[in-house]
Amino acid sequence: MRALALFAAVRLAGTAAVVAVDRIAGHPFGKSLAHAWDSVWYLHIAEHGYGSQVRITSTGAVQTDWAFFPLYPGLIRTLSGLTDLTTGRAGLLVAWGCVLIAAYGIHAIGHRLHGRTVAAWLVALWAALPHSVVLSLAYTEPLFTACAAWSLYAVLKGRWPTAGALALLAGLSRPSGIAAAVAVTAAALHEAVRQRGRVPAGLWAGAALGPLGWAGYVLWVGAQTGDLLHGYLRVQSAWKSQLDLGAGPLHMLRWMPPQGSGPAYPMAVLVVTASVVLFCLLCLDRTPLPLVVFSGVLLLLVLAVSGPFSSKPRFLLPAFPLLLPAARALAAAWRAHRHRTCLLYGTLTTVSLLYGAYLAALSPQPL
Question: Shortest CA distance to 147 belongs to which of 129, 163, 128, 125?
């Protein structure tokens, strides 16, 4: 399939760019791919299980690894145990395998809704986003996107138990995994109303399955802390991740210019602003409800929950339905002006690869 071949080529080029910048910067081989930022926590969980914590001397807060969901480190541990691979290499293989599965699922959704050309551009755009370098790293976004994309595709096909089971896995992959469950549940309720109660077989089973992964882990963390209902929220609060309805990002924006933080924050502002605009276009385009709900929940979490603003574009990376309006526009441009469209995409890809290598290997801001 040409679209997936293009996707793989772009991401291989992105991986090579990170390795090259690592070498130029004098970093150990593969450090930025498998041993940077959150990757270190996931690999430690895979090797030693849960229970590690770090005290932040400036604030006194205690950060624990309970903030990180279990599916990805569990898969790393399993692959590493079945082979002679280190956890770092196993983490990369899991991520790279999942990103291909995710790209295939995204293409399947685009093809079902708008045909082959739009599907190809949808996958191509996802490969060339400014923060798509994350798809080459030992992070959870590839796993989450793979589970969510195929869950949403199952909803579009009316395969409710499959959709619920995949949403359950998405909920075990990362905190924002609840978006997949909300999308499945919303679609199930809409279908029940549309059918006036004569629902397809397995609909309610799928709707019930979806939230179990996310809720199960949150309650488990609560049990470990001794506060079943609020323990997980306290764990996230120590990581400066809590519901603040945008107050944190607004405060950050106020002080961004004198900080001199490089391109990470301005690019994050641009990506988040563009995502809001694309979500409005997605709604106006009468996109199927589960895709709108999934993207809307992810966007709401980014806007309403505090945390490093430079990481927010990464949190939006799984919200691939937001790219549908742009993919449709590029498909129309491709039919009329192929040369110009190729030039535009080539420029976008080049900028993305260079910026991604900077983010992964050089930026002092959290990815």
Answer: 163
* 236: its two tokens: 């996230």
Model confidence pLDDT, tens digit, residues 268-277: 999 999 999 9
DSSP 8-state symbol, 307: S
153-190: pLDDT as tens digits: 999 999 999 999 999 999 999 999 999 999 999 999 99
Cβ-Cβ contacts under 8 Å for 356 (sequence gap 6 or more): 14, 17, 18, 130, 131, 132, 133, 136
| Domains of the chain by residue range | 2-240+346-361
The rounded distance, in Å, linking the Cα atoms of 141 and 134 is: 7
In angstroms, the CA 253 to CA 242 distance is 18
Model pTM score? 0.94
Q: For the packed helices 71-82 and 141-156, what is the interaxial angle rounded to 10 degrees? A: 110
Pick the closest to residue 141 from 86, 90, 103 (CA basis).
Answer: 103
DSSP 262-292: TTHHHHHHHHHHHHHHHHHHHHHTT--HHHH
| Whether 93 contacts 73, CB under 8 Å | no
